[in-house]
Amino acid sequence: MHSSGGYHNQWPGGQPPQNNDLNQGQFPNGQFFSPHPRAGLPHSSNQTVTGHAYQDVNYVSPYGSQPQPQVPTSGVDFQEGPAPLDAPAFSEPNFATISLPIVEEGYIPAPGHEDDDAGIENPYTTNRAPYWESDEEEEDDDDWEKDLEEEDFLRSLAERNNDSDDSDFSIEDEEEDPDDLILDGVVDDDAEETRKRGRPRSSGRGRGTGRGRPRGRPRLLTRNNDGSTGVRPKRVKIRRGMNGRPKGKRGPREVADPGPEFKDLQRRANDAYEASQYQQAIVYAKQAIKKNPEIYASHNLLSEVYDKMGQFDKALEVLIVSAPVKRDKSLWGYIIDKLYAMDTRRFPLYTEKNKDCIALDCLRGILELDSNDLKARHMKLDIEERLGHHSKCVKQCQLILVLQPERGDILKRMAMQGTATQRLTRIHLNKMLEYFDTSFAYMMANEAPQESNLDWSLLNVYLDLLNLSNVYPKALTRARMLSRWIQGRKEETYWDDYADDREFDLAAEPRRTAVPQFSLVSDQYNYGGGLPLDIRIKIGLFRLRQSPAQLEEAMRHFEYLEPEDESPTAKVNSFGDLFREIADAFHSLQFDQEAVRFYEPLYTRNQKEMVLKTFLGLHTCYSNLDKLSMSNKAADIVQIFLDWKTDSVKDLAVLAKFFEHQGMTEEARKRADRAYKMRGFRALQQVGFRGLSEVQAHGMREKRRANWDSTRKAVRIRKYLKTLREATRSGTDPDNDSSSTVAIVSRPKLGLFRKKKTDVDPKPRRFEPVAEPATFAGTDVPTEAVASRAWRLKLDDLAQESPEDLQAARTQHREIEASFSRLRMLQEAADDGDEDAASEFLSITRELLEEFSTFDLFYYNKKHKFRSYFRRVAHGELWKDSALMMLAVAANRVEDGQEEPDLQETPRTQPNDFYGIHFDEWLDAFCMYAILLARNTEDNRCFRALDILTRTNIFYWSQKSTHQIQKVRLACALALDDSTQVSVAIRWFMRTYPFSSDLFRLYGSANRLTTLGEGFGASAATKAFMRYIKAMDYALLTPAQRDRYNFQGDDRTKWYANAVQSGIIKAVKGHDPALFGLFGHMEGCTGSSHITALNYFYRAFALTPEDPTLNLSIGIAYIQHAMKRLSENRQFQIQQGLTFVYRYHELRTRDNIPVYCSEAEYNLGRVWHSLGLLSDAIPHYEKCIALSKRVREQEILSQGGDGSTAEDFASDAAFTLQQIYALTGNFSSAKTVTEGTLVIE
């Protein structure tokens, strides 16, 4: 929904009607007046108050009725109550503006509203920051120490006030934000405001939100009678002695005498003011305020003085500071009037936005005093709307609706603000619908239809919200009922008994007259004739979007638009938005022919109503209808897309996907590149753009090129500055150094010359040519091995600066070569099981692994391929270690008389060795290391070593190396009985060789070899297989079927885009029953749901109905589900399961293969055994035992040997029979079975 015009700017009749009681969100026009000139604003042309006057306010300056301000002669004359003890004192003479309204000490807000005011951005800044910023933002933890110093004074004050009532303080006064007492609304304007000042919000400990005190000044500690400290309690009256109120004077307590010093300062300020000595009056007034900031008269006097001096900004600031002391709504209203009267040209700091922010603080002060002040709430709503705080506008609308539920204009404004973005719609939609329903119920119960604010325009807004909620049955019911009420037919509830919309037919015959309760004498305008067209279309759309779609009834409504009308007065010219909505709805539901009926009138007569989505829908419909004429029209729309101009990232992403689908690669690439540069990576990913990886790579190359250009520019600048210093800092410069030969007599003028830093002793410069060395320092490596002169000099400097490191690298190279030589000697013995050889192999390889894993260049970023040892990364430091290593290897090889070294900075081919040892040999050693650790059952060290290998950019980008690592991981996982690592290894193979049936079978078989199998149905594995199934389904569906099965939701964006980009969709050849069966086992074996498992078993069954294992799985799933406590109709489910189990038995024994027959008999016996029917299980166990001889004979014939390796279930069946007989007391039969089958000869 657009912020100014609703969702897609579709509001009935344009903008909602303005507030009848307000003028553009301001208080009604009216000038705040004071009976005395001094109380008002100075008579100046730039101080006129208009548009923002807080009407019905009668604030009178305390100096208006007297010729001069007078200081009270006693404390009784001061009628203002004491201000909070933390009110600011005017210690700074120059202040610019005011912080947020002061909060009473000890204030605790309602739960969940601690930071309602903390999110308001403070956009105005000044050099006099302490008076701009709120106490929340400026306060530091050091304030706690200052508060402790005031403890004694506060405690004595609390004891003094214990026995008397404070007329200016009550428990209600502690509630800072009255909104929290009325409505617990959701305010989420993170996307609207950016918090630029103060501490960042955190969910951890500290001064955050949540339960407890809000941010700001902490509650002070008090000392208890026992010497301990605690939080100061709220000021609650303590009653002592007898029950009831003690005798004494009633009413507010007398204000404490401010003291003679304060009175003297106030008197002097009054005298100076009367004598027009305003500067002196300011000094005395500030001293009086500093002495006692709780007396409002001093603040007001200071404000009057600033007014007389024409410093209206300071006068306003003083009033805002003192307003919490006065606690008067009229004063806050006077401040608002004066605020908006400030001339922005004279006071640039008071911009319109800053005025709104300050006015919000003032309005908060009014609402603290009276939470039901509707004028303040309306003004706050208008300001929040101007500032773009959508969520806060929604909250204010809801608060107003609590007090005035009949306000239809507020309902419309709430709907506009709450649906300004998709995120706001998701947050506020349900709550807004609740307020609409509540207001409608109030209007229908207390108002007549002809006088109610519940009219067609408000109903249209409400139906828009219901449409966004996707609850179409409710939307249809509410649309019919509310339309009936607006037409004055609320008693005609009998129409609800009919499933159609006959009551809104334009003609009474034939459908409406068929209703017995209907009378022909009724006014036809109160039925179909009085129903607005936009409401009728929405009802039709709700019909269309029912499940299943009610096409015939929806078309009755849509036909009123007369799409075939080609006259100048055709409805398509006036209601193009309705045509677009209907066509898009038909297109989304695959009614292409009907969609074209409403698309084409727009396309031919009202294209200005068409957006990109509309043209795409029309093109898709033309393509799906597959007619020659339609194909030509589709080609015309493609030309429109080629000429489409847009700066929207989403539109560019959609166009890129469209052209990619059409095979127009160049056009797709242009728009994708542009979208990517506009930070549209997510948009391209969501639409499933296949060339995203290429676009991303191209963008990264351009970014690196731009960075390189900026780096070259920085180098040129540094060279220029160096030349400039050499040209301007000669040896005779008196500022250059202390040894100058020119004496300084005097400077021409202070500040004319900048003081320059003394140069560090520069290195002597050589002007004669210097011969380059023949070899690198400390080595016999010829410098001619490096072609680039700059790189040659850099390597030589490194060798000269780090001779010790170079020598250590040469020694390290010798040791590594010796280590690998020893490993080659030990490998065969260690592989054969020699414990000493294996122990030494592990010890040597561990040190090599530490050396390899601590070489930072291999682990800097595995997403970037390893290309050279001289890559400058991490501020240019990593290349030094690798350069020393390369120099050391080259030096040792030259010393040994081997081939000439190659030390090029950018080699033509990627290096394939480390310390002179090939990467493959390093990998073989590490894999052997992991296998030996697995033999020693050191599972943690084994898999951590493999993880280290997969993180390096050497092996990460080599499929061959990674393949070897994962094979070793699988072997070690099987040896260590680790199902989780088995799953990890096989899932890598599945990603590398997607949709391979053999890998699906391997996953199940390998996990079957582990004891527990906790990794088989783990959450990560389940999600991975679910994505495979979704990708397979999507790849095998036609475009029309994809839309029908709703692949367009948010869920698609999480897997489909990645599936398309990775290219696994191309590997789909058809539905794979192995995948369906495996996922069914994962769902069933993990105990999550046998019903879900049956869903995928049946999908596999549809492909391979003769698979014995699949039939057994279906049967067991039914039987196990029947055993659940909440299962219904157990008998029927068991019968279904037995049907599939016996079908499995039939399929398995059909070929009369002994081993299969033995398996079938044993499994059938287990099924009956699990049901507790032992008499049915025993015969099958006995048949299984009897087949043992045939199984062994078959094994001998097919495999040779003595048949001991045959897969014989006889021993399992015999053991089960033994347990059955023993538990039932038939020990003789148990003995017979044991001696016959279980005794090992």
From TrEMBL:
Keywords: TPR repeat. It comes from the Eukaryota. Residues 1-91, 107-261 are annotated as: Disordered. Residues 133-152, 164-192 have a biased composition (Acidic residues). TPR repeats lie at residues 1158-1191. Gene3D superfamilies: Tetratricopeptide repeat domain (1.25.40.10). It holds the Pfam family TPR_19. GO terms for cellular component: transcription factor TFIIIC complex. The keyword Glycoprotein does not apply. InterPro entries: Tfc4/TFIIIC-102/Sfc4, TPR-like_helical_dom_sf, TPR_rpt. Residues 153-163, 251-261 have a biased composition (Basic and acidic residues). Residues 196-220, 232-250 have a biased composition (Basic residues). PANTHER family: GENERAL TRANSCRIPTION FACTOR 3C POLYPEPTIDE 3, TRANSCRIPTION INITIATION FACTOR IIIC TFIIIC , POLYPEPTIDE 3-RELATED. This is TPR-like protein.
